[in-house]
Design a protein that fits this description.
Radius of gyration: 16 Å
Distance between the termini: 17 Å
Strand order of the largest sheet: 1-2-4-3
Number of strands: 8
Strand content: 25-35%
Number of helices: 5
Largest sheet: 4 strands, antiparallel
Order of helices and strands: HHHHEEHEEEEEE
Shape: globular
Helix content: 25-40%
Amino acid sequence: MKKIMLTTLIASMLLLPLGSTALADYEEAPAPAVSQDYLPGDMPAGTSPADAMAPALHGVLLAMMNHDVQSLDLSDGVLAWECLYNMLSLYGQLDSRSQMEDGLLLFPTETVQDYAAALDLSLEALPPLPQALTDRLTFDRGGNVYQAVCGCDDLSQLQVREVRPVSGGLQLTGALVYVVEDLDLVQFQATLQYRDSMFGFAVTGLALS
């Protein structure tokens, strides 16, 4: 039953067609990281760490469930890129630096690096974009922008149920809930560490239960 619900979730994420511009026409290559000056924990006033990190947690959980893995291992380049794509696809349109063009979300490299930092990743250290994602995410070397198919996940909701301080960060316990039936798709425990980045934290560990 949960597998069927997950399939429905993944299908519902891809709302917009590719349009007349084929994603595969653009050259794929990792771009260099961009240094940013942020304060650890820097985020909009009144935003809790759980809310600030919701894009990362939501994106990671969907990718882990899709790959049927219980523990997050971002040394797996395919999984890492899928986590990052999910973040950009679901939440990137809320970033003022993104642009919509021909049904695609366009992100400057520095924006993608900011999102990657929430996963403790550097774009320059990632392998090239995997073939499995070329219909959803590509890098246009000429324009120095990433292009993502815009998605929306209205069928699931991230719920953080407990937050505990740990050395250098926080431990979160919660679930990804299928809102149609108010059922937990999966429960998780995540470790966040403070980082000098836009999100203020990075996911350094996540296990499903």
